[in-house]
Design brief:
Layout: E1 3-4, E2 10-11, H1 14-17, E3 21-25, H2 29-41, E4 45-49, H3 52-61, E5 66-70, H4 78-88, E6 93-98, H5 103-112, E7 116-119, H6 124-132, H7 151-165, H8 170-177, H9 181-188
Parallel strand pairs: 3-4, 3-5, 5-6, 6-7
Antiparallel strand pairs: 1-2
Helix pairs in contact: 3-4, 7-8, 8-9
Length: about 210
């Protein structure tokens, strides 16, 4: 059974997840190390890497039963790393993390073999509970399980990706986007547009 914290929140560990080792791949050192400490406290052997090349090297030497990959990293992406890790060990269960959660990205991750896709911020219990829930249902080839995101949603995600790549520098982000700084500031004040929901007869919501 899952042991609770004092406030009743579940604590996941090696026994409840059914695995004893995990690979954490994220180019942000602080986030990677914070997760590493949390996973070690839960009994896991933890391996870490900051990019595609490091992850492959570590995984070949010390393969793990679980892996948590950042979708967007300098160089080759988390999606490419997911495919490479599963070629080395198809039994490894992988969860993809992204600071810019989107329906198309989640579909790509699941089709490539991830068991789930989580948006950041996600703590150790968020991640381990996603492993406990089991594999996400596969998306049949050619099937449209989710509606296409709106143009407004795509624009919002693109703007925030560029801003993140610029380290939060609005002037530099505006230059890369080719728009005036004030125009970018107005767009940043807006909330993320909702993706369209699928029809009721599909039996799905926008989260799936």
């Amino acid at each position: 059974m899952i042991e609770p914290y004092g406030d009743g929140a579940p604590v996941y560990n090696t026994q409840t997840v059914g695995a004893s080792s995990i690979l954490l791949v994220d180019d942000t050192f602080v986030l990677r190390e914070r997760l590493s400490v949390a996973m070690q406290q839960r009994g896991f052997r933890v391996e870490t890497a900051g990019n595609f090349e490091q992850a492959i090297e570590v995984f070949q030497l010390r393969p793990t039963e679980l892996a948590v990959l950042d979708l967007r990293m300098p160089g080759q992406s988390g999606l490419e790393l997911l495919r490479a890790l599963l070629k080395i060990n198809p039994q490894t269960r992988v969860i993809m993390l992204s600071g810019f959660g989107s329906i198309p990205a989640s579909i790509d991750a699941v089709r490539a073999g991830a068991v789930n896709f989580l948006s950041k911020p996600a703590d150790a219990d968020d991640i381990l509970s996603a492993f406990v829930r089991g594999d996400s249902p596969a998306v049949p080839e050619g099937a449209i399980a989710f509606p296409a995101p709106s143009l407004a949603r795509n624009e919002w995600e693109h703007i925030h990706r560029v801003l993140s790549d610029c380290g939060g520098n609005i002037s530099e982000a505006a230059r890369r986007l080719g728009i005036h700084r004030r125009s970018l500031q107005r767009k940043l004040r807006k909330r993320a547009p909702e993706d369209p929901a699928v029809p009721d007869d599909e039996g799905l919501t926008e989260e799936g």
